[in-house]
TrEMBL record:
<feature type="domain" description="Aminoglycoside phosphotransferase">
    <location>
        <begin position="5"/>
        <end position="82"/>
    </location>
</feature>
<dbReference type="InterPro" id="IPR002575">
    <property type="entry name" value="Aminoglycoside_PTrfase"/>
</dbReference>
<protein>
    <submittedName>
        <fullName>Phosphotransferase</fullName>
    </submittedName>
</protein>
<dbReference type="InterPro" id="IPR011009">
    <property type="entry name" value="Kinase-like_dom_sf"/>
</dbReference>
<dbReference type="InterPro" id="IPR052077">
    <property type="entry name" value="CcrZ_PhaseVar_Mediator"/>
</dbReference>
<dbReference type="Pfam" id="PF01636">
    <property type="entry name" value="APH"/>
</dbReference>
Length: 133
């Protein structure tokens, strides 16, 4: 957890002054609805906010797209995969994981809390490996 806090503090300036857009804020497979015509809709905008779109990209890529395809996926949306983008993506992933840890702790959901703690340890390993390369 200490690594996560250090990473958030170290890279806070990287997230500042970013282009602000409408973000969903809760990208999850449960929030997509496929209509009878085959179109896919993003629903449940309760957590929508004005912010860095990287927070939504990070969740889509991290949870649903294999890492080796991130560059291709981003290019389809006109987004360049560079070191700066990756720093911001991991920053938002760590922040999201930590907020879920607090949320499950407050509700005494120990099983879910343990899953989130394991997830943040996994993120910390990825960050360390990535920073060392």
């Amino acid at each position: 957890m200490n690594t996560s806090l250090q990473y958030l503090q170290q890279l806070l300036p990287v997230t500042a002054s970013r282009k602000q857009v409408v973000c969903h804020g809760d990208i999850d497979h449960h929030n997509f609805l496929r209509a009878a015509n085959g179109k896919l809709y993003l629903i449940d905008w309760d957590n929508a906010l004005i912010g860095d779109p990287t927070m939504d990209y990070a969740n889509i890529l991290h949870w649903y797209i294999p890492k080796e395809k991130w560059g291709v996926w981003l290019a389809q949306y006109g987004i360049e995969k560079d070191e700066y983008l990756l720093q911001r993506m991991y920053w938002y992933l760590v922040l999201d994981a930590m907020s879920y840890i607090a949320w499950h702790f407050e509700r005494r959901q120990w099983g879910e809390l343990e899953k989130r703690l394991n997830h943040i340890q996994s993120l910390n390993k990825e960050i360390k490996k990535w920073l060392m390369s």
